[in-house]
Amino acid sequence: MDLLEEYRRANFFFESGDPLGAAKLLEPIVEAEPHNTAVRQLLARAYFNSAQLSRAETQLRALIEHDPSDHYAHHVLGRTLERAGRFREALPHLRLAVAMKQQTDYQEALRRVEAWLGKSAAE
Known about the structure:
Blueprint: H1 3-15, H2 19-32, H3 37-49, H4 53-66, H5 71-83, H6 87-100, H7 104-122
């Protein structure tokens, strides 16, 4: 199997709106190259976009374990946990992402989770 060609195909599937197809192509690549962060990140995004949240979480935690300063992995893990309704678990990852990199989408996700937690604490 030509891993680079498969990665390119997976990226095409992902960009074309087929995250499930991308994930199927990426899974064996991650298995063959477990330390390839670009492939693992794309697989995590494919899982997130296809609502396979526990699988996305597994990939994102592996990325963070490999590189704790990966702001994007923290952000997407926070979003994954938010999407799963696990707001308290999402909060530290979203805060870390914002602290590491000032980006509007990072800040918006953090505000959303903080607002939700503020409302739930008041109830």
